[in-house]
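Our preliminary data section would be incomplete without showing what the modeling component actually yields. Below, a chain of 549 amino acids is followed by its predicted structure, encoded as tokens that our downstream tools consume directly.
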Amino acid sequence: MKILLKRIELITIVGLLLMATSCSDEFFDINNDPNNPTTAALSQLLTNSQVAIAGATGLSTTGLSSHLSVFMHQTVRRGDPDRYGTLGNSFMINACWQQFYDIALQDLEVLIDNAENVADSEVPNLEYAGIGKLMKAYAFSIMVDVWGDLPYSEALQLNEFQNPHFDDDSEIYPQLLALIDDGIANIEASTSSEPLKPGADDLIYGGSNSKWIKFGKTLKLRMLNQIRMVSNVDDQIKALIAEGDLISSSGDDFELMYGTSVSPDNRHNGFVTDYANQTKTYYISPWFWDIMKGNNSDIFSGISDPRVPYYFHKQLVPGEAPQNPSERLDADGFLTIHFGSNGPNQAQAQDVSQTVLGIYPVGGWYDDGQGATVTASTGTGAAPERMLAYYTILYLQAELALDGVIDGDAREFLAEAIQASFEKVNEVVAGTGTTQSVPTIDQDAIDNYMNAVLEQYDAGNDDRKLEIILTEKWIAGFGNAIDAYNDYRRRGYPVIFDPNNDTGPYALITSSPTPFLVSLPWRAEDLNLNQNAPAQKNATTDRVFWDPN
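Predicted structure:
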């Protein structure tokens, strides 16, 4: 955890250091001090904000998915997220809130202001302004989705509002939708005469205007789908679909690609946590494992998912003894612990025995069945933080078609989404630069799996079909659990393990004294220091405005 804190500090320090240097044409102007510029470079602000947003959403102890993946029973962890025990003073809440407000959004606010507000004789940098607005809308939309009410209208204006009020979440969303439109308009109005153009400093799209516009429209579609259970936005959704200018391939994915560098460390946060560090953080949820292995009697029973060896790496070979007595050890070497366990072995170290995150989510090690204790040199850490992927949009359209909001066959959208999900696994593996000989998932394996899933889909009623769509989306999103957390609260799917009521092998030694958190608690420090902040919420009952349950 200390290493991850240092990484957050490093992002801030690097940003400040970069802001303290300049390559301006006016370097030798005796009326300007090149070592103390009055404004930060747009390129540095953009890069810093993108890194911070990826870190704040992803699978690291400082990211939202570190806890939400536990809530959604993809992983298991000890500490705050176990038994839904996340509090306002939890490390993740503090670190994530800081990355959003103090780093990413503060940088974006300066970027937008500096890009738009130039001297009368100068040309504004509309591309930078537009990208900044789209990223600001994305960041705030994620924060509203998980926290609800937030400082928005008075946030990021420290000179005017040192104690910003918390805006009602239902009033923030329309402003974000308008901000997206404004950002797209800026990009579309940009010209070749602008003095500065994003390029390599744009770690997500490399300065591609067309991809940023696609992202903006797709983000808008995602947000409209988010609120449609409580607001009639069907016509707006249909209009966006009709335009067709949405993310249309994995090449358009809104993601930040991590690399292999150790110093400075730009490897995937989840890789650093579970491979580079000696003490492991994440166990694999037995609920998630059994669904993918075809062991759950309710859904996908008997269907073994070909993505399993890409998602998870077993450090044990069949029959090998674990480091310590275990709670769950299968004959094939899969070892994990239970959510909310009261068992005698729940706290014993299994660092060299437990099944860990694989090559797909974090650039780790492909499971070739040979076992291997993972280290910093096992895998590369080169993997993307997938924040809004093409396959996500296909699952979203399958849901919309099933509900009759848009034209098209929901089954066809689902099939396309499953295909895209598998292709993304192959794409990520190819980009890791692994030294392993890793096979691709061949089309026959994909077809066999898809046909088995579609057979269950065809046999179900509309409610069952929705469950299958959102369960497949949950599986595909492994590594970033925000959409799954939203889907579960919006629609009730995927079905997740209930530690207090479920029976069977998962519930033998588990319990949860805290109900599921329907939103995250606010950062306690902000509530203590902000004179206009509300009292801490009850996160088990205080729902986000779009949650109809």
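The radius of gyration is 23 Å. The chain has two domains: 2-255+517-529, 259-382. Preliminary results of this kind motivate Aim 1 of the renewal.
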